[in-house]
Design a protein that fits this description.
With 365 residues, the chain is mainly beta. It has three domains: 31-145, no CATH class; 148-298, no CATH class; 306-358, no CATH class. It is 4% helix and 57% strand. It contains one helix and 32 strands. Strands 1, 17, 18, 19, 21, 22, 24, 25, 26 and 30 form a ten-stranded mixed sheet that branches. A five-stranded antiparallel sheet has the order 2-13-14-15-16, with no helix packed on it. Strands 3-12-11-10-9 form a five-stranded antiparallel sheet, with no helix packed on it. β10 and β11 (121-133) form a beta hairpin. The longest helix has 16 residues, at 2-17. Bound molecules: calcium ion (2 copies).
Length: 365
């Protein structure tokens, strides 16, 4: 009897999971160590702003959901202090200064509770900030993610943890922000709105601008196979309906039929020694190659890689660089072997009579 009930419950869960889902997301404090949003300095404060007495101030303005926010970095006993117009009233005299605090290996400001008016309501969204003084004295200021929206959904019978971060720290979820789709530690970093196809299952999703919910709905598409040589392939393509992230395994990726622009790819392939090579390439704007997927299927052709040696003469010095492109014109963004960077390539310079003059090494970056 118990078995029968359990089976019924499981069956209904599976059916429900393939329906449209509205996933509530919970706001929480959270530091994302990898997320920086650089903000350019302003020479002077905007004319209409009320300021406290500040020593050596530098001003920054970041767009916000309900307008913009002013930040002023100043000195106090030789250390930086930060004033943020948290309530957006163009007044820094009603704000308390934030001082640098150690967080892990870096010193940061925050969490700073920013107040925004969104849909007629006042909401509080936390951000952090960091300041780096470069060797030549220039100050590099960036905002950091200090909060996220978090929730769980069931997709294809699996539990998926989702987190949304406001990467550009403007208080709203939009184009520049990130959705982290985490299936038992396997993370996918996605835009906050898009279309996904994983092993032949397709869905469309969108995070609400307030961050409060994620809507996921399955979609039916006409499909065809993209053949590739490798264990795993991720393609980022675009068509009139928007962006698609497509994933396939073991030489076969099931894709929607259509005419696309190929803006990104990541492919993993094992070699004879059992090592896993991983290659990432991307192309932006007009540089993105066309990629047609007819009903009869398509092949992904990106080889051979084209390596160009570029040199730049500065007086008596030469600077050499390597530019690596795929055969279909995408720029190589990363290459790893067993999740490590491969050894840096060397350049051998030989004189006309065959003597090795120099053997400098290239550096990544
Ligand atoms: Ca204020
Ligand atoms: Ca945002």
């Amino acid at each position: 009897m118990r078995w029968a009930m359990l089976m019924l419950l499981l069956a209904s869960c599976t059916a429900w999971a393939q329906e449209r889902q509205v996933v509530p997301l919970r706001y929480e404090l959270w530091w994302d160590e990898r997320s920086f949003w650089g903000v350019g300095a302003k020479e002077t404060a905007p004319g209409d702003v009320k300021l406290p007495k500040l020593t050596e101030p530098i001003f920054f303005v970041n767009p916000a959901a309900d307008d913009k926010r002013l930040f002023a970095l100043a000195k106090e006993n030789g250390e930086f202090v930060l004033y943020a117009d948290t309530n957006g009233n163009n007044d820094l005299t009603d704000e308390r200064p934030f001082r640098l605090r150690q967080r892990g290996w870096r010193r940061v400001f925050g969490p700073i509770p920013m107040r925004y008016r969104i849909n007629g309501k006042t909401v509080i969204r936390h951000i952090g900030a960091e300041v780096i003084v470069l060797g030549d004295g220039r100050v590099y200021f960036s905002l950091l993610v200090a909060s996220r929206w978090h929730g769980t959904l069931v997709w294809d019978g699996k539990s998926v943890s989702v987190a949304v971060i406001d990467r550009n720290c403007d208080g709203m979820i939009g184009e520049d922000d990130t959705l982290v789709w985490d299936e038992k530690g396997e993370k996918r970093h996605l835009p906050t709105k898009g279309q996904v196809g994983i092993n032949g299952r397709f869905f469309r999703y969108q995070v609400a601008p307030t961050g409060e919910e994620l809507v996921v709905e399955p979609i039916q598409v006409r499909t065809a196979k993209v053949k590739f040589q490798g264990e795993r392939l991720i393609l980022n393509v675009e068509d009139k309906s928007g962006q698609w992230r497509l994933e396939g395994q073991k030489g076969e990726l099931i894709a929607p039929v259509g005419d696309f622009l190929l803006v990104g790819m990541e492919i993993s392939r094992g070699d004879e020694q059992g090592r896993i090579w991983n290659l990432m390439a991307s192309a932006f704007g007009p540089a993105a190659p066309k990629f047609a997927i007819p009903e009869t299927g398509a092949n992904l052709n990106f080889e051979p890689l084209q390596v160009s040696l570029i040199y730049d003469r500065r007086g008596d010095e030469f600077e050499f660089s390597l530019d690596i492109k795929t055969a279909n014109g995408m720029s190589l963004r990363g290459l790893t072997v067993d999740y490590m960077m491969p050894p840096e390539p060397k350049l051998r310079l030989i004189s006309l009579d065959g003597k090795v003059v120099a053997e400098p090494q290239f550096h990544y970056g």
